[in-house]
Structure formats: C-alpha cells, structure tokens
Amino acid sequence: MVSAKIQIKVNSAELKKIINQAENLVSESSVYMAEEMKKSITSGAKSGRRYGSHTSSAPGQAPANWTGQLLKSIKVQKMKGISFVYITAKYAQFLEFGTSKMRARPFIIPAFIKTKKYIQDKLKRIAK
C-alpha cells in the first residue's frame, strides 16, 4: 500500500491580500464595463438616419444617445465580493440583438469583451 502525506502551509496575511485584490477587481471590472457601455453610446460618429439635428446609429454601431434614458439605465450594484452590471431600459435587448425589423446596435457584448481583456491584464499584474 502506498500512502502520502501532504502539508500545505497558508500565509493568512497573503491569502487575505489576494482575496481583497480579487474583490477589488470584481468591483472595478463592473464599473469599467458600465463605463465602456456608456462611452460607446456617447462617443464616436454615428452614421445612421438623421432626425432633425439627431443622427441615429447605423446597424452594427453602438446606439446613439438621443434622450439619455439608455445611459441613465446602465447601473452597477456592488456587494462584498459580488458586483452586477444591469440595464433597466426594456429596449436595451432589442438594441443589442436587433429585431425582425431592426438590425443590432451592439454595446453590451463589445463592452464585455473589453472588460474581459481588462480583467486579464489586471490578473497578470496581480500574479507578478
């Protein structure tokens, strides 16, 4: 019969530091994602139809900011170690994925992709 004994020594101060860094990263990342969504809506030239002085977004572009309701509806909720990004505007899903009569104006998935890279870069720095 073969047996093995494994002993792991944990530095509790170092472990607490890592947990704290992870919780901070979760919080920072959710704020980063919300800001990326807002930035995509408010910046960049839009090349869709003109309605008076307003130019809408073309298919594939992030939605154009017209009334500000979509921007106001992007929220972040933080709790210890958990953070949520949510959008209260009921029409956000139609902008993101399109409908049978309108092509998509994505702003959530592009922000998620940028946030994923942000998290990866932060983790690389933490791991050093």
In brief, what are we looking at here?
The protein has 128 residues and is α+β, with helices and mostly antiparallel strands. It has helices at 12-42, 69-73, 92-97, 108-127, and strands at residues 50-51, 54-55, 74-79, 82-87.
The number of E-state strands comes to 4
Mean pLDDT: 91
Characterize the overall form: elongated
How many helices? The count is 4
Radius of gyration from CA coordinates: 21 Å
Helix content: 40-55%
For the sheet with most strands, the description reads: 2 strands, antiparallel
Task: Provide an overview of this structure.
This protein has helices spanning 12-42, 69-73, 92-97, 108-127, and strands spanning 50-51, 54-55, 74-79, 82-87. The chain has a domain at 27-41 and 55-123. The chain has 128 residues and is an alpha+beta fold. The longest helix is centred in the first third of the chain and has 31 residues, at 12-42. A two-stranded antiparallel sheet has the order 1-2. A two-stranded antiparallel sheet has the order 3-4.
